[in-house]
Amino acid sequence: MRQVLVIPQVSVQNANALSSPYTIGFPAMTAFLGGIHALQRNLKIKNTLFNDLVFTGVGVACHRINLQTYKGKQDYVASIIATANPLNEKGERPSFIEEARCHLTVSLVIEYKGLSMEYEDEFITSIQTEFAKLKLASGDILGFGKLKRFTIDEKTDNSLRPITRLLMPSYVLIERRDLMIDAMQQGQDTIDALLDHLAIHHYSEKNEAGDVEWIAKRKQLGWIVPIATGFHGISELGQAMNQRDLSKPHRFAESVVTLGEFIMAYKINQLNEMLWHYHFDSKNNLYLCQQNK
User: Domains of the chain: which residue ranges?
Assistant: First the structure.
């Protein structure tokens, strides 16, 4: 039996849409898992009843997203809609770094363990209080729906249906690094494998009437997107000047980008198909958010 909490219809304003140094769009999975990890830590700090509580996996279902960009009629590329900073003492706009932002509504599916049944009511109340104080993907949480708890018995058919019904209509983000692995095993390098699945190929063919028809097609069916899923350490562990926490070793890292896919929530049949987990690969210095299907 698996315990699941759903925080539905979380409205987030000005979330960070610069999910990696290379991609703009849906926030990185590290942002969502980091937010839920912060929630777990805050619960333990505020109440000793939750000392054994562990959030073991997080699923994200996107209901709507509004990327803050603008593209005119004759523009080739879109521009970021930036915020207007206050004027300085000279009456001029101070210089700033443009940041990609988005407004979005998501539902979060959280698997947890280590909680006694007698504390369930206090658990829900504490979640409502602490979650409202957080930022999610650097955005402000404006509100969310009524929390729902579920007990999943995967030996029973359709045990996940109550959750997927609650999530509809939405698109659940799943990992598709298998596409990257297959392409790289066939000889493509990383960037070619990524771009090959994102490119739209246009070609023409004649129909039965002899007329030419243009067809646009991608290599893989489905809503395939680039996603940021973690970090790769590129330096040895050590100390750095002005690091935030002097008690912890420091390491420079770069973003890990792979492929993901948005699928409708009703297509999810097993809980593991939507849940993301932390994973540390010490051999390759990888700090990842990934799925264990």
Answer: 2-71+98-290
The CA-atom distances, in angstroms, between 221 and each of 37, 184, 198, 218, 225 are 33, 19, 11, 7, 12
| Per-residue pLDDT tens listing for the chain (293 residues) | 889 999 999 999 999 998 888 888 999 999 999 999 999 999 999 888 888 999 999 999 999 999 988 888 888 888 888 777 788 788 877 777 778 899 999 999 999 999 888 888 899 999 999 999 999 999 999 999 999 999 888 777 778 899 999 999 999 999 999 999 999 999 888 889 999 999 988 888 888 888 888 888 888 889 999 999 999 999 999 988 888 888 889 999 999 999 999 999 999 988 999 999 999 999 999 999 999 86
Residue 267, token pair as written in the block:
């297509």
Tokens at 270, concatenated: 């097993």
167, 107 Cβ separation under 8 angstroms: yes
Rounded (5°) CA angle 161-26-110: 35
At 98, which amino acid appears?
Answer: E
